[in-house]
């Protein structure tokens, strides 16, 4: 299976967000990763569904929406209506994660469970069958530009093993500190979707296409 690249626009130029989304689409991105933060679950604020809707015309690629919010069914639904294709939610702040994942699927969207580095992987056991995506955070969520946490490799390997044992075709996606040095370890552990903000939007070679391809091939520079 070829590796899917989902550029996180958190590292893009926010004053030119539409053009940035178009640019990474044309550079070969497989999805567009949109980080939604509410200032409660994570110590940062980003954008809401209106911005997601405004960006929708800039790319036909799936919108991979990562909700770092205290759960609220109406808000989750508003992202579906805004044009999200994948919606990942965190079980940590959600007392009804089952219901949330089922609701996302009922809206015709792919449902994802995203877990923080400090959350035991066992939290996923009752959720695997309800997930189209597992999003493994390899940094503590809230900000771009952080360093990949090496302990994530073993967590990815464990989740890959469980997905295979259960015979599922869940997308195993990794988010945080993904760059040409860490990508080969992440892919080697069994992930096949990579989120990257800094490594694409702020790559030194100034070519989104080269940055996307380098990550996809898992080639260390
Ligand atoms: O969800 C998050 C951060 O909370 C991520 O999607 C970051 O935006 C990834 O940024 P880099 O680590 O690639 O700079
Ligand atoms: Fe994210």
UniProtKB/TrEMBL annotation:
It catalyses: D-ribulose 5-phosphate = D-xylulose 5-phosphate. One of its GO terms (cellular component) is cytoplasm. It comes from Parvularcula maris. Gene3D superfamilies: Aldolase class I (3.20.20.70). Catalyzes the reversible epimerization of D-ribulose 5-phosphate to D-xylulose 5-phosphate. Transmembrane segments: none annotated. Its EC number is 5.1.3.1. Binds 1 divalent metal cation per subunit. GO terms for molecular function: D-ribulose-phosphate 3-epimerase activity; metal ion binding. InterPro entries: Aldolase_TIM, Ribul_P_3_epim, Ribul_P_3_epim-like, RibuloseP-bd_barrel. The active site is at 35 (proton acceptor), 175 (proton donor). Pathway: Carbohydrate degradation. Keywords: Carbohydrate metabolism, Cobalt, Isomerase, Manganese, Metal-binding, Zinc. HAMAP family: RPE. It holds the Pfam family Ribul_P_3_epim. It comes from the Bacteria. CDD domains: RPE. Its cofactor is Fe(2+); Zn(2+); Co(2+); Mn(2+). This is Ribulose-phosphate 3-epimerase.
